[in-house]
Automatic annotation (TrEMBL):
Keyword Oxidoreductase in record: yes
GO cellular component entries: cytosol
GO MF: coenzyme F420 binding; oxidoreductase activity, acting on the CH-CH group of donors
Keywords recorded for this protein, A-Z: Oxidoreductase
Pfam families: Pyridox_ox_2
Protein name, per record: Pyridoxamine 5'-phosphate oxidase
InterPro entries assigned to the protein according to its UniProt record, in alphabetical order: F420H2_bilvrd_red/Heme_oxyg, Pyridox_Oxase-rel, Split_barrel_FMN-bd
Superkingdom, taxonomy of origin: Bacteria
Amino acid sequence: MLPAMPHDAREEFLAAPRVGVLGVTDPRGGDRAPLVVPVWYGYEPGGEIVVETGRETIKAQLLRAAGRFSLCVQDERRPYRFVSVEGPVTAVEDPIDPAVREALAHRYLDPEEARDYLAGTAGQLKDDIAFRMRPQRWRSADFGAFAAGFEGAAGADAG
């Protein structure tokens, strides 16, 4: 069994600016898997996940229909770590608050890039909405702790 992250560590991990992978049920047909897409997201420890999307996108339609979603974030550098959360949609902000959109841009881009991005995509503001989700179930793993057990065993064998 892989070691889960302690509560505070998983909250901090999720709060770091990582690209998340959002998953939501897709009931449009029996042969469809859930929709799984990369997203920018916002999160502060103890708070809600916020995700921005276009009002008419399939993602928005599925999020409204399902009323819940999952988000998984990972660190691809060794030692690998991940946090996955799922929970109910608690609010839909339609239209998105411009401050929320600005905060997301500044979370992922340096100040100059964020300014240029926001200026270049200003037209989207009227079409974008935000979904908020309260994490209800958490899954996490820290492979660093897992690997440390092997390193200790290897060192004991070498001596």
